[in-house]
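Worked Example 4.2. Read the sequence first, then its structure tokens.
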Amino acid sequence: MSDSLDSSPCSPKDTASLTEWLDYMQQIHVSAIDMGLSRVLPVAEALGVVQSAKDDAYVFTVAGTNGKGSTTAVIAQMCQAAGYKTALYQSPHLSAFNERVRINGEMVSDQTLIDAFGKVETARLKCGLTLSFFEMTTLAALLIFSEADCDVWVLEIGLGGRLDVVNIIDPDMAVITNIGIDHVDWLGDNVEDIGAEKAGILRDDISLIYGTAEMPNSVKQAIDKHQANCYQVEKDFSYRVIDATTWQYSNAAVSMQLPRPALSLINTANALSAVLASSLNIDTHAIEQALQSVKLAGRFDYRESHNRHWLFDVAHNEQGVEFLLTQLLPLWQQHLANQSTFDTSNQNDQASDAPATIKMLFSMLADKDIEKVVQRLTEAGLPISEWFIAEIDYPRAASTEHLQGVLLNYVDGAKIHSLDRLQQATDAVIATSQSQDLIVVCGSFHTIGEALVALDDNGLR
């Protein structure tokens, strides 16, 4: 591909809005995904973000197929609770782009992003290079963290590891949550190839937290090559549930009984291991405080809205669905047990005598393995009475017809409601469900984001 700027649109004016900047950055590069660091490094060096991170901040970099968002959220919350000025970079977002860039838990302002985009654009033009949307926006996030003089940077890898733009920053602590089959067009179709890409975040003599009990040889080889210190779950640290409110974390040095967070325990254990293995001063009080307050929209995210009970989860591949089901099955039993206490005070929508069921609000991207996701959801033994499907507003979205075609292999057609847009599907599931039902929304970040917008539910902070 060419890096020529000849056909690039003109840079936004000084008065441009955040939306205008985001639209512009979608247009200036020939492909949405363009793996590699050769174009982005000169711009990063011109901005000074690489040197700033090396000299002034402690950096956690988190890669993995699933669980990156929860892991980064827990690390950031623990560092913030300990008094460190903490930067958190995650992707993608659900409703507002600002969700991706946070300092001490707060999304940065539109103007902060606009100012950073302008500086990245100036540096890009001086270097005579084109950058993808993700490269431009990631550089802007790193520049914001540098200018804010943050003590700790917690960075989530967007895709893979080795060639992801986040990897221009040398981490002090690396985390690989897990390795599954996803993004096969970019990372490979087997765990060895994918593991090699994710292990690309390692540096010499670094510490690595590895969050599953089985490790591909490619990751072992990378650990040996870099002489990294690896702490692996079930080998170097472990965790177990004690009761509904307490869990236990143990490693060779400590054993701690801690409050259960709203996020998954495996991701929490990985995050805690990273914090404990770091050089930061984070005491038990800060850890406990963080676990009691941490949350992340769209990750096993239970809410009540419109006199309905909702569960939002971004599960979009087979491994993600397995994790969702591990948590959903016990939640469903608890939901049934607690039905009688649910608020049915709305006289226009009293609970019926019908048994509670699960309604699925579902959509996915076309380049995901929709067949495996649907198969696993339908074979889990859950009482899913109806499916509400629609195409999400995204270029890579699966069409409603394609979603329906896959579902018909596993679900009676009478249980499938096909709508044109997710707004309509959200309205339909509210209209046809009862207040004792549980509505599960999953399949993509974009599915969750559009559903939350449809509900006008702004509880994303």
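Now turn to a second chain, presented in exactly the same format:
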Amino acid sequence: MKILNLYACLGGNRYKWDEVAKEAGIKIEVTAVEWDEELAKLYQERFPNDKVIVADAHKYLLDHYKEFDFIWSSPPCPTHSKVRMTQKTTDAFIPLYPDMKLYQEIIFLDNHFNGKYVVENVTPYYEPLIPAKKRGRHLYWTNFNLPSALNERKQGKGLMNGVTNEITKWCEFHNYDFYKYKGKQRRDKIARNLVDYEAGKTIFETFLGIETKQNINQKTIFDI
């Protein structure tokens, strides 16, 4: 099974996919696309069997979508986030156009992709232009049903609050040492945006359950 993981970052969503695939008796081949070379290097260290490509994920999707069975996309969220409105009077949050690549990918996948897909983003400060499945503080656009709960863990006190030891707390939460990152982005930003691996696991389990059921039904019909 071929999987495309776009805007891969450090693979929060992908962290437990191998565990799920092993239990299901399925072999997966994951291609990850990340524009930040330092993040791509760290992702490769974390998932040495994945194919990691440093490229524009938006362009890569358009050029290669036909090669995959399952696509996960987590486009950048800052221009959509409620934080931009709650802190819009500060210099750090000047007004910006929302990045419409998010909706371009949803429309594209829904109309052109034959496999299953997930597009993930934060709950925006505006009414979403395309209806989504809200789970926790995130929105998911998918072409398959999601459980009402994704087993997403609650973030402990101190996370998201800019405390002195915030990065250390995020390291514990995501089971990853963010101090390894030596690139240009802020570590706290990377940690905050990483998908909770339990949510990623639940969604992947749901996808595999649907695929397995479809394959069983197809074989039964074929045998008859």
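Notes for the reader: Residues 25 and 221 are 22 Å apart (CA to CA). Confidence is low (pLDDT under 50) at residues 218-224.
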